[in-house]
Design goal:
Helices cover 40% and strands 18% of the residues. The chain is an alpha/beta fold. The strands form five sheets. The chain has a seven-stranded parallel beta sheet, with helices on both faces. Helix 2 links the parallel strand 2 and strand 3. It is globular, with a radius of gyration of 19 Å. The chain binds nicotinamide-adenine-dinucleotide and uridine-5'-diphosphate-4-deoxy-4-fluoro-alpha-D-galactose. The site of nicotinamide-adenine-dinucleotide has 28 residues, from helix 1, strand 2, helix 5, strand 5 and strand 8.
């Protein structure tokens, strides 16, 4: 029986809450630190309901060294899953200091305290955005981490660099207990837990496609703007690699299982390896919800690429992970969450 204790930063958020369910169901003990800046603690109550088990929640900021020290003093933490971060691309362009402060300084404080307590295993939520705008649509991990187009993406690339340096310092010093770091580069997480109890609950008008479409389907928003109809893609609209959030968090469990055997810092793509266009997503929603999605094609959104999808081969070879859920299941689960909770956790 597994009783390792995992610290989940940002555990009340969209992906973190799904990770907590999976961890509890796999018999890990869970401690969550979250400042609730983009979430509500109700998500954690629902996590406990789904899993039939309880977790420990500490409402605090990861930049609060004392709060972190208290956690590491009180709990024998095996590893950290680090989800806490701000993630809105547009907002990051308006408030770069806040984004660097939160995402970069937050990770520095976290890793500093981890090192102090000798907890040197971390799984970090990175993003496909760290690849910038490469000359290919199929992204492999050996592409340079270069050219992210906004402060959010740059903050992810900076954190990757910092974590690589931590691992490298331990190689140079031949540390007896070296850092073990996994960088997971997410493509486009969508969907929700099959119970419909937890899901994505964006503040205000959603920036991302799937939350927007599901709010049109539920009648909260009138019409989707499709950003660009003249891309060199299958139907002129942007193509992305959508991945079910439960598949995504299962990738974290596989990464967790890979720890304890070595040292260093490894990056993996977490994606399905297949892209869908905006119009294909709309069609899937219409099929599943039996509702008409009103949309109009407008100008391209600045900073968008035409198409990208993951090469997920490395995660399969080294972590034994691949996605299992198909598009219709992603949409059906999104819809169950949205229709049962039209106002999110409120
Ligand atoms: P989310 O906003 O739902 O969850 C992030 C959580 O972190 C929130 O609960 C928030 O309150 C908390 N948080 C933020 N700053 C904090 C701080 N300083 N101290 C403590 N808690 C803090 O976002 P999500 O979609 O669940 O994303 C989780 C992680 O995955 C983020 O790091 C995000 O950048 C990354 N990511 C997300 C996507 C995506 O499309 N959702 C894609 C790639 C990477
Ligand atoms: N789109 C629309 N209308 C909308 C929203 C999006 O047409 O209202 C289109 C976009 O132009 C794009 C596709 O839908 O072609 C997906 O857009 P999202 O905003 O849902 O996702 P992105 O691929 O732009 O970005 C997401 C996350 C980023 C992350 C990136 C790569 O939002 O944080 O995936 O992981 F960095």
């Amino acid at each position: 029986m597994n009783r390792q204790k995992i610290l989940v930063t940002g555990g009340a958020g969209y992906i973190g809450s799904h990770a907590c369910v999976e961890l509890l169901q796999e018999n890990y003990d869970v401690v969550v630190i979250d400042n609730l800046s983009n979430s509500k603690s109700d998500s954690l109550a629902r996590v406990e309901k789904i899993a039939g088990k309880s977790l420990t929640f500490v409402q605090a900021d990861i930049r609060d060294k004392q709060a972190l020290s208290n956690i590491f003093t009180a709990h024998d933490i095996y590893a950290v899953m680090h989800f806490a971060g701000l993630k809105a691309v547009g907002e990051s362009c308006e408030q770069p200091i806040r984004y660097y402060q939160n995402n970069v300084c937050g990770t520095l404080t976290l890793t500093e305290v981890m090192e102090q307590f000798g907890v040197k295993k971390i799984i970090f939520s990175s993003s496909a955005t760290v690849y910038g705008e490469p000359d290919t649509v199929k992204y492999t991990e050996d592409l340079p981490v270069f050219g992210a187009t906004n402060p959010y993406g740059k903050s992810k690339a900076m954190v990757e660099d910092i974590l690589k340096d931590l691992a490298q310092a331990d190689v140079l010093s031949n540390a007896s207990k070296p850092w073990e770091i996994v960088l997971l580069r997410y493509f486009n997480p969508i969907g929700a837990h099959i119970s419909g109890l937890i899901g994505e609950d964006p503040n205000g008008i959603p920036n991302n496609l799937v939350p927007y479409v599901s709010q049109v389907a539920v009648g909260k928003l009138e019409q989707l703007s499709v950003f660009g109809g003249d891309y060199p893609t299958i139907d002129g609209t942007g193509v992305r690699d959508y991945i079910h959030v439960v598949d995504l968090v299962k990738g974290h469990l596989c990464a967790l299982n890979s720890l304890g055997k070595g040292s260093g810092c490894k990056a993996y793509n977490l994606g399905a390896g297949k892209g869908y266009s905006v119009l294909e997503i709309i069609a899937a929603f219409e099929r599943i919800t039996e509702k008409t999605i009103q949309y109009k094609i407008v100008a391209r959104r600045t900073g968008d690429v035409a198409e990208n999808y993951a090469d997920p081969g490395l995660a399969l070879r080294e972590l034994g992970w691949k996605t299992e859920k198909q598009l219709d299941e992603m949409v059906a689960d999104t819809w169950r969450w949205q229709s049962q909770n039209p106002s999110g956790y409120e």
